[in-house]
Amino acid sequence: MSMARLHAGLLAIAIAMAPLCLAGQVPPRPGQATPVPRDWSEGRPLAWVDFLALPDAASKGAALTAYEIQARSICEVDGPAFRVTVRFLPDQSWIKPKQRTARTLAHEQGHFDLAEVTARRLRRELASLRLACASGTAAFAKLVADFQDRDRDLQRSYDRQTMYGVSAGPQRQWGEKIKSWLRTEKP
Q1: How is the chain split into domains, by residue range?
Q2: How far apart are CA 26 and CA 91, in angstroms?
Q3: Directed axis angle between helix 102-128 and helix 168-184, to 10°?
Q4: Contacts of residue 97, Cβ cutoff 8 Å, sequence gap at least 6
Q5: In degrees, to the nearest 5, what angle opens at C-alpha 178 toward C-alphas 38 and 163?
Q6: 137-181 pLDDT, tens per residue?
Q7: 66 contact partners, CB below 8 Å, separation of at least 6
Protein backbone atom coordinates (compact mmCIF):
# COMPACT_ATOMS: atom_id res chain seq x y z
CA MET A 1 0.00 0.00 0.00
CA SER A 2 1.31 3.48 -0.70
CA MET A 3 0.48 7.01 0.21
CA ALA A 4 1.87 9.64 -2.05
CA ARG A 5 2.00 13.37 -2.25
CA LEU A 6 2.98 15.14 -5.41
CA HIS A 7 4.31 18.65 -5.05
CA ALA A 8 4.85 21.27 -7.66
CA GLY A 9 7.17 23.43 -5.60
CA LEU A 10 7.89 27.12 -5.97
CA LEU A 11 4.47 27.48 -7.55
CA ALA A 12 2.77 26.94 -4.21
CA ILE A 13 0.93 23.99 -5.66
CA ALA A 14 0.68 21.01 -3.39
CA ILE A 15 -1.58 18.30 -4.67
CA ALA A 16 -2.36 15.46 -2.28
CA MET A 17 -2.62 12.10 -3.99
CA ALA A 18 -4.16 10.35 -1.01
CA PRO A 19 -5.61 11.59 2.26
CA LEU A 20 -2.76 12.46 4.57
CA CYS A 21 -2.94 10.22 7.61
CA LEU A 22 -0.96 12.00 10.31
CA ALA A 23 -2.45 10.00 13.17
CA GLY A 24 0.28 7.38 12.88
CA GLN A 25 3.15 9.82 12.97
CA VAL A 26 5.58 9.28 15.81
CA PRO A 27 6.95 12.51 17.30
CA PRO A 28 10.69 12.42 17.97
CA ARG A 29 11.75 11.71 21.53
CA PRO A 30 13.56 14.51 23.39
CA GLY A 31 17.09 14.68 22.02
CA GLN A 32 16.15 12.54 19.01
CA ALA A 33 16.41 14.05 15.56
CA THR A 34 13.28 14.42 13.47
CA PRO A 35 13.16 11.67 10.84
CA VAL A 36 14.45 13.10 7.58
CA PRO A 37 12.81 12.18 4.30
CA ARG A 38 15.29 10.61 1.92
CA ASP A 39 15.55 10.70 -1.82
CA TRP A 40 15.12 7.56 -3.89
CA SER A 41 18.48 5.90 -4.54
CA GLU A 42 19.25 2.80 -6.57
CA GLY A 43 21.99 1.91 -4.09
CA ARG A 44 19.87 2.34 -0.96
CA PRO A 45 16.77 0.14 -0.89
CA LEU A 46 14.19 0.45 1.85
CA ALA A 47 14.71 -1.41 5.13
CA TRP A 48 12.25 -1.99 7.95
CA VAL A 49 14.17 0.47 10.13
CA ASP A 50 12.99 3.19 7.70
CA PHE A 51 9.33 2.66 8.65
CA LEU A 52 8.93 4.80 11.78
CA ALA A 53 5.22 5.60 12.06
CA LEU A 54 2.89 3.64 14.29
CA PRO A 55 0.88 1.08 12.30
CA ASP A 56 -2.70 1.94 11.48
CA ALA A 57 -4.59 -0.73 13.42
CA ALA A 58 -7.78 -0.01 11.45
CA SER A 59 -6.06 -0.63 8.11
CA LYS A 60 -6.29 -4.00 6.39
CA GLY A 61 -2.86 -3.31 4.90
CA ALA A 62 0.32 -4.90 6.21
CA ALA A 63 2.41 -1.77 5.64
CA LEU A 64 2.30 1.69 4.15
CA THR A 65 5.03 3.37 2.14
CA ALA A 66 4.60 7.13 2.18
CA TYR A 67 6.49 9.18 -0.37
CA GLU A 68 6.26 12.43 -2.20
CA ILE A 69 7.20 13.41 -5.70
CA GLN A 70 8.43 16.98 -5.67
CA ALA A 71 8.45 18.92 -8.93
CA ARG A 72 10.03 22.36 -8.98
CA SER A 73 10.31 24.93 -11.69
CA ILE A 74 13.09 27.48 -11.34
CA CYS A 75 13.33 30.44 -13.68
CA GLU A 76 16.79 30.76 -15.19
CA VAL A 77 18.16 33.15 -17.81
CA ASP A 78 17.37 30.86 -20.73
CA GLY A 79 13.99 29.68 -19.39
CA PRO A 80 12.67 27.41 -16.68
CA ALA A 81 14.70 24.56 -15.24
CA PHE A 82 12.91 21.64 -13.64
CA ARG A 83 13.85 19.42 -10.73
CA VAL A 84 11.87 16.32 -9.84
CA THR A 85 12.69 14.18 -6.80
CA VAL A 86 11.08 11.24 -5.03
CA ARG A 87 11.36 11.25 -1.25
CA PHE A 88 10.50 8.49 1.21
CA LEU A 89 8.68 9.80 4.31
CA PRO A 90 9.77 7.62 7.25
CA ASP A 91 7.57 9.33 9.84
CA GLN A 92 4.45 8.46 7.79
CA SER A 93 5.49 4.95 6.71
CA TRP A 94 4.59 1.96 8.86
CA ILE A 95 4.60 -1.82 9.12
CA LYS A 96 2.49 -4.08 11.29
CA PRO A 97 4.91 -6.15 13.42
CA LYS A 98 3.57 -9.56 12.35
CA GLN A 99 3.87 -8.55 8.68
CA ARG A 100 7.57 -7.72 8.80
CA THR A 101 8.60 -10.13 6.04
CA ALA A 102 10.93 -10.02 3.06
CA ARG A 103 7.90 -10.37 0.76
CA THR A 104 6.14 -7.36 2.30
CA LEU A 105 9.31 -5.28 2.18
CA ALA A 106 9.81 -6.17 -1.50
CA HIS A 107 6.25 -5.07 -2.22
CA GLU A 108 6.75 -1.76 -0.41
CA GLN A 109 10.04 -1.21 -2.28
CA GLY A 110 8.01 -1.69 -5.45
CA HIS A 111 5.81 1.27 -4.51
CA PHE A 112 8.85 3.47 -3.94
CA ASP A 113 10.44 2.29 -7.20
CA LEU A 114 7.23 2.95 -9.14
CA ALA A 115 7.25 6.50 -7.80
CA GLU A 116 10.78 6.88 -9.20
CA VAL A 117 9.58 5.55 -12.57
CA THR A 118 6.83 8.19 -12.56
CA ALA A 119 9.36 10.87 -11.63
CA ARG A 120 11.67 9.85 -14.48
CA ARG A 121 8.80 10.02 -16.93
CA LEU A 122 7.81 13.43 -15.60
CA ARG A 123 11.42 14.65 -15.93
CA ARG A 124 11.50 13.47 -19.54
CA GLU A 125 8.22 15.22 -20.32
CA LEU A 126 9.32 18.46 -18.63
CA ALA A 127 12.61 18.41 -20.54
CA SER A 128 10.68 18.35 -23.81
CA LEU A 129 8.62 21.43 -22.93
CA ARG A 130 9.48 24.81 -24.38
CA LEU A 131 8.06 27.21 -21.84
CA ALA A 132 8.73 30.80 -20.92
CA CYS A 133 9.13 31.42 -17.20
CA ALA A 134 6.21 33.81 -16.89
CA SER A 135 3.74 31.94 -19.08
CA GLY A 136 4.67 28.34 -18.27
CA THR A 137 3.13 28.10 -14.81
CA ALA A 138 -0.25 26.74 -15.91
CA ALA A 139 1.29 24.19 -18.30
CA PHE A 140 3.71 23.04 -15.60
CA ALA A 141 0.91 22.66 -13.04
CA LYS A 142 -1.29 20.77 -15.53
CA LEU A 143 1.51 18.37 -16.41
CA VAL A 144 2.32 17.73 -12.75
CA ALA A 145 -1.37 17.06 -12.03
CA ASP A 146 -1.50 14.65 -14.98
CA PHE A 147 1.47 12.73 -13.60
CA GLN A 148 -0.17 12.69 -10.19
CA ASP A 149 -3.07 10.80 -11.76
CA ARG A 150 -0.73 8.47 -13.65
CA ASP A 151 1.19 7.60 -10.48
CA ARG A 152 -2.01 6.97 -8.52
CA ASP A 153 -3.33 4.68 -11.27
CA LEU A 154 -0.02 2.82 -11.58
CA GLN A 155 0.18 2.29 -7.80
CA ARG A 156 -3.41 1.04 -7.69
CA SER A 157 -2.80 -1.39 -10.56
CA TYR A 158 0.28 -2.68 -8.78
CA ASP A 159 -1.65 -3.32 -5.56
CA ARG A 160 -4.66 -4.83 -7.34
CA GLN A 161 -2.70 -7.13 -9.62
CA THR A 162 -0.33 -8.35 -6.90
CA MET A 163 -3.14 -8.58 -4.33
CA TYR A 164 -1.11 -6.16 -2.19
CA GLY A 165 1.98 -8.31 -2.54
CA VAL A 166 0.30 -11.55 -1.45
CA SER A 167 0.18 -13.17 -4.90
CA ALA A 168 3.74 -14.36 -5.56
CA GLY A 169 3.51 -14.80 -9.35
CA PRO A 170 2.12 -11.36 -10.17
CA GLN A 171 4.45 -9.78 -7.56
CA ARG A 172 7.43 -11.36 -9.31
CA GLN A 173 6.15 -10.17 -12.72
CA TRP A 174 5.69 -6.63 -11.44
CA GLY A 175 9.16 -6.73 -9.86
CA GLU A 176 10.65 -7.62 -13.24
CA LYS A 177 8.59 -4.93 -15.00
CA ILE A 178 9.67 -2.27 -12.48
CA LYS A 179 13.35 -3.25 -12.84
CA SER A 180 13.01 -3.01 -16.62
CA TRP A 181 11.42 0.44 -16.40
CA LEU A 182 14.18 1.63 -14.08
CA ARG A 183 16.78 0.39 -16.58
CA THR A 184 15.12 1.98 -19.61
CA GLU A 185 13.82 5.25 -18.16
CA LYS A 186 16.70 7.69 -17.86
CA PRO A 187 17.13 9.26 -14.38
Answers
A1: 2-22+34-184
A2: 6
A3: 30
A4: 55
A5: 95
A6: 888 889 999 999 999 999 999 999 999 999 999 999 999 999 999
A7: 2, 3, 4, 5, 53, 88, 89, 92, 93
